[in-house]
Amino acid sequence: MPKKITLSVPIVPEPRAVWKSPKVIALTVVAIGLVALFFTNKGLLIAGMVNGKPIFRWELNKVLTSRFGQQTLEQMISERLIGDAATKEGVVVTPEEITAKVTEITTSLGPNASLDELLSRQGMSRTEFESQVRLQLLIRNLLGRDITVTEADINNYIATSGALLASTEPEKLREEAKQAIFDSKVGEKLQGWFEELKQKASIQRFL
Question: CA-CA distance, 115 to 109, in Å (whole number)?
């Protein structure tokens, strides 16, 4: 009697069964999500288009890093050092202080000048400007704690540099002079203090 031959035929799942697979469904959802992300957030991948050809974000970042990376990194390091020093010393800057300083700067520009327009010309946003104001106030609050401005200092400043002051009312004139003297003394302390801060810090640069 001839030997019966049994063929092993692989079972091919029906198309619908494949689509019902959790793994396939998950991959499909991810793929759809990536496509949606690309079309809604093109700026994350493409910085611009020229005659239908993309300028990728990584290309822009490479150029910006090569031209401005070192300068920007040093600025960020400085800001981090000052912020850490302020935190260590318990020195803070309140939103009210920032608002008051921005108002003071805006007023000093005069009625015909717009702070936002000036910032736009310099390529700086309002948020970046307020961040710089906060940094300056942190430095003043850190270094100004032991600075004293005497009445004699004010009298001498008005006598020698009164022409530099904008105020005309005696009380405001003296307050402006006091502020100018204070800022000058902070500036005198800043360089040495910051150099010491950098020397004590652990800084690594990879650019």
Answer: 8
The residue assigned the tokens 């799942």 is 13
Mean pLDDT of 159-184: 88
**Which among 199, 192, 195, 83 has a CA at the least distance from the CA of 141?**
83
Query: Alpha helices of the chain — where are they, by DSSP H?
Result: 15-19, 22-40, 57-89, 95-108, 115-121, 126-143, 151-161, 170-200
Q: Where are the domains of the chain?
A: 15-44, 69-200
Residue range 69-74: mean pLDDT, rounded: 91
Please spell the DSSP secondary structure of 43-61, one letter per residue. Answer: GGTEEEEETTEEEEHHHHH
Phi, psi of 90 (to 5 degrees): 75, 25
Residue 149 pLDDT more than 70?
yes
Predicted model pTM: 0.69
- Tell me: pLDDT of 175 over 60: yes
Which 3-state string (H, E, C) describes 165-185? CCCCCHHHHHHHHHHHHHHHH
pLDDT category at 6 given cuts 50, 70, 90 is very low
Backbone torsions φ then ψ of 181, nearest 5 degrees: -65, -45
Spatial separation of the C-alpha atoms in residues 78 and 84, rounded to whole Å: 10
Give the amino acid at 196.
E
